[in-house]
Prior knowledge:
Aspartate Aminotransferase, domain 1; 2 domains; three-stranded antiparallel β-sheet; Aspartate Aminotransferase, domain 2; binds pyridoxal-5'-phosphate
Amino acid sequence: MTLDWTNRRADRLRSLPPYVFARLDELKARAREQGLDLIDLGMGNPDGPTPQPIVDAAIAAMHDSRNHGYPPFEGTANFRKAITDWYYRRYQVPLDPDGEALPLLGSKEGLTHLAMAYINPGDTVLVPSPAYPAHFRGPAIAGADIYPLVLKPENNWLIDLAAIPDAVAQQAKVLYFNYPSNPTAATAPREFFEEIVAFARRHEILLVHDQAYAELAFDGFQPTSLLEIPGAKDIGVEFHTMSKTYNMAGWRVGFVVGNRHIIQGLRTLKTNLDYGIFSVLQTAAETALQLPDVYLHKVQARYRARRDFLIQGLAELGWDVAKPLATMYLWVPCPPGMTSANFALEVLQQTGVVFTPGSAFGDGGEGYVRVSLIAECDRLGEALRRMKDAGITYTSGTQASAPNSQSLIPNP
Ligand SMILES: *Cc1c(COP(=O)(O)O)cnc(C)c1O
């Protein structure tokens, strides 16, 4: 008996935007099978090891059998205190560890579950386009009516609040945003945060800020945190992650800070879904938040060096990419006339280098690819050499070289 299980999926799953990169994944898989040397700059997965003191703290905590049972739902008191202490040290904003901070199984989990906790089918939710996929997939799972806030280069990829029609703003229940931004690498000045807080207060919108790149900033730039803005705590929460700052993506630890009532709603949902984070990992995360700044400077220096190296190399191929002040990404325009999916496919086929098509982040990402700075400079240099050899430049794209170019990845 073969039933059509795909068609029997719940509406909330079937309403998700289709996954359009099957072809890219298929090519990547085939390239690997062929033993081709892929240079994968497509993922957001940091390539460095977790700092040793964090690993050591986890090993020590593992030997303590008190850590082997169910952790408390709301996270350990020590980790919550480490979160609010860190937040105060970093932003001079006091928070109550009992209620204004909640540990999460990675921030993606919290971002998505917050949507489930606050959004009913048909509710209007404002989401930038392009955006980190959890910012629209979470609301989509909840059945939201998503109103895309299309970001534009001429506005430095900032949300244009004035362009949101009044009727839409009046209806909107939640707004997701993220600066420093994945995927555009854009940063927002403090004035922008003041404006968006005023906007959310005026229209009584729940403001969700994703601050994944709080610490990956360069050249003296200090990203603003939502809760630094007076009045933000009345209407907002901010998500943080250990994944990027401390190379802890596999550990699955993040947290949310902000309005206690909003956090309480998320917590209520989560008590029905999970049992929280393994206490061993909460102990390790505590250690991470207490590390001296020299660890941050090291990780910042790594990404900054790669940023400068790649921007210089791309300039030699005709690209004029401005230096982003934060994140681990470059947001690179496709050669004129090429869609982001076609450009990424061509680059992969001809060079074995993987970029993420901007359209993966919503229609507003069309015309760009995201390049992750997750390889050492020698590998980035190799990627640039291969692009040069294949004749891939900003002006020509791959079209000019197409007649005599060869795909590295043969059809089976
Ligand atoms: C990487 C990333 C996350 C994911 O964080 P986890 O804590 O690993 O789930 C969330 N938001 C943005 C914008 C990211 O780039």
